[in-house]
Amino acid sequence: MKLQKIKAETHTGQQQTSSPGHAGIYVLLLSAALSGCMTTRIEHVKDTSTGIEAGESIVIFASSYHTSNPAEDDLIECVTKRVQSGSGKLQVHPEAEFRDALFPWLEPRTAPRTAEDLPELLERPGVWEQVHERDIRYIVWIQGDTERTSSGGSLSCAAGPGGGGCFGLAWWENLSAYEATIWDLEDGTRAGKVSTNVNGTSVIPALVIPVPLIARTQAAACKGLAKQLQSFITESPPTT
Asked: Is residue 103 domain-resident?
């Protein structure tokens, strides 16, 4: 087993407004000090060499609902879209069509509960024939979720005869943690795993005008996971 390099990145962002008044200046100063920040950590572990031929495709699944943290549908859609673009793009077979073709083996009652159960799926009657007919080389099994890990502060808004505004500071921290297990259907073995963890702090400071500074951790996790899946399967260095 070969442990690949762990990559960590930190991204910060600021939001600007034009021609701010005195209150706006205070908000901008506070925004600069407390702007949304994200830290991304990506790992992959490779068990075997990989590669993919022209005409071959992959299928991307969310983990079974039986697991404690099945990946969200929008995360799966995002990863599916991204791995089909760029210089390392992969052909993705529609998950719904593949599920129908393998009926009833991918129904909730009979679907594999973990990635490690996939070899058993391939032994089901007719499964290998459907895989071969569609030139599917890899199954990518994604599990994980985005959750709020902490929050604090307070924000209140009021309106009166002389106008209104919001005052205070609210913040929260999200963690998007996902893991993709890649199975090579050519020899029925696990090729390895790719995981990404994105931790981000969102802030809404307000001195009359709220200025949301949102750390979009799930979007960052999707981008990182898709890029690493491309490089993992094609065995090419990830593009920056």
From this structure: yes
